[in-house]
Amino acid sequence: MALPQEFEQRMERLLGEEYPAFREALARPQARGLRVSPLKITPEAFAAQAPFTLTPVPWAREGFFYPETERPGRHPYYDAGVYYIQEPSAMAVGALADAQPGERVLDLCAAPGGKTTHLAGRMQGKGVLVANEIHAGRAAILAQSIERMGISNCIVCNETPERLAKRFPHFFDKIVVDAPCSGEGMFRKDDNPAQTEWTTDLPAFCAERQAGILDCAAQMLRGGGKLIYSTCTFAPEEDEGSLSHFLERHPAFEMVQMEHPPAAFSPARPEWVENANPATANAFRLWPHKLDGEGHFVAVLRRTDAAAGDVAKLHRKLAKKEQEMLETAKQLLLEHVKQLPEDSFVELRKEKLFLVPEDCMLDVSGLRVKSCGVELGTCKKNRLEPAHALSHALPIDAFHRVCELHVADGSAESYLRGETFPYDGEKGWTVVTADSFALGWGKAANGMMKNHYPKGLRWVGKQEGKTR
C-alpha cells in the first residue's frame, strides 16, 4: 500500500519502534464487521442461527467479525435491518456512549448511520434520538438507514451545528461527535479516497472545524451529561489536540476515566501535542497493529455544572376537517395493523400518515428535517396504502397478514428482486418476511402475491453497501 510520504515520516517519528508493526498492519486486509440490531433479535440468538462465520467483537456486545470471503451485505437479513455493516473499531463509539432507554441523545455528525443505529438499538425505542448531517445527500442516506433498521424514535435533521445549538440549549443527556477528520485511520479501507485527498495541511484544517462543532455540542449538553468525541485519524492535532483546546475553552467539562477499558484500547498520547492537557490520556487510541480494526480515537467527557434547558413540545391544534381526516386515516390503518405502540401520536401530513413517539413530539419548526417518526402510509380514496417503513418498524405479530418466505429455498431473494409469486393466503396487503424478519409489503389477490418491495431497493444491480 502506497501512503503519503509525509504521513509515513510523521508516524515513524511518533511511533518509534512500533512503526514497523503499524506499517505492516496497514498492508494486511481490513477487518470486517457487522453489528446486530437488538430491536430485531438479541446478539446471542443471532449468533446461534447466523448463516455466517462470526467472531465476537470484544468492545461491542452487539458486534461480530466476519471473514472477507462472506457477504452479509448481500443477504436478505441485511435488507430486513437485522444488522448493520460497520467497521469494528467504529463500534467502540456507540459502546462507550451506551445510550439508555428514555435518554435524550444527539448524533451530531451522523451519516451514514453507523453510530446512530448503534445508539438507537440500546435505546430500545424509548427517549428521543436526533441524528444530524449537514450535507443533504448524506442526510438522505442517513434517513434510509434509519428506515431499514426499523427505528421509530429518531428525528433526522439536515442542519448546521450552530442552528441546532440555538434550538436545543442544554437539552441532551448524551451527544456523540464523530467529527469530520483527515481520515488517516481509514487509509486501508477499500475504495476510500482518504489517501489521495490527504495533505500535510489537512489535519490542521480539520482541527479548526472540529473546534466549532465541539463548541456547539457543548451548548447543547445538559449538566451531568456526557459528550463522546471520536475521529478516525491518527493526527495528534485532531485528537489529543482538539480535546486539550476544548477543555481550555470549556472548564465545566472533565474527562471520564473508563474503569475497565478493553485490553485492545491504548491510552491516548498527550505527549504528542505541545502543552496538551494531561487528562486527555484518559481517551483511547485504537491501533490497527494492536487490534482487528482500523484506526480510531475515542474520548468521553462529562459536563460538571447544572446547566439545563428544554425544547417546546409540539401540540398542533387541528381544524375540524383535519381531525376528521386523521380519524378516517387511523381507521384505515387498522386494516393493516392490530394496534400501534402506546405513548405515540399519529399525524397526517398532507396525504401521508406518520407515527411519532411522544418523546419525539418536539417543536422543530424552521429546521431542515428529513424525517421524524415512522411513515405509516398514504391515503388514497378511502384506503391507506402502507409505507415500506411501517413493515420494518413494528414487530411481526402487530400485522394482520404475514407471508413467510425463507432464505434457504431462495424465495426471500426472489421477493427482493421484485418477483411476483403464487400465494393462496388471505387477500389484502401482507407483510413479507425472510425467516420471520420483515422485508416489505406484498398484496395478495387471485392466488398471487403482487410484489410491492420498493423499486429503488430491489436487488437488480444491487451492490453490497459499505459503511463506516
Quick gist of this model?
The protein is α+β, with helices and mostly antiparallel strands and 468 residues long.
Give a quick set of tags describing it.
disordered C terminus; 468 residues; 14 helices; alpha+beta; 24% strand; 10-stranded mixed sheet; globular; 5-stranded mixed sheet; single chain
Mean pLDDT: 94
Q: What's the number of helices?
A: 14
Care to count the β-strands?
23
Summing up helix and strand content along with how strands pair, one would put the structural category as alpha+beta
Main pleated-sheet profile:
10 strands, mixed
Helix content: 25-40%
Q: How big is the Rg? A: 23 Å
> What proportion strand?
15-25%
Unreliable runs, pLDDT <50, ≥5 residues? 462-468
Q: Tell me the overall shape.
A: globular
Distance linking N and C termini: 20 Å
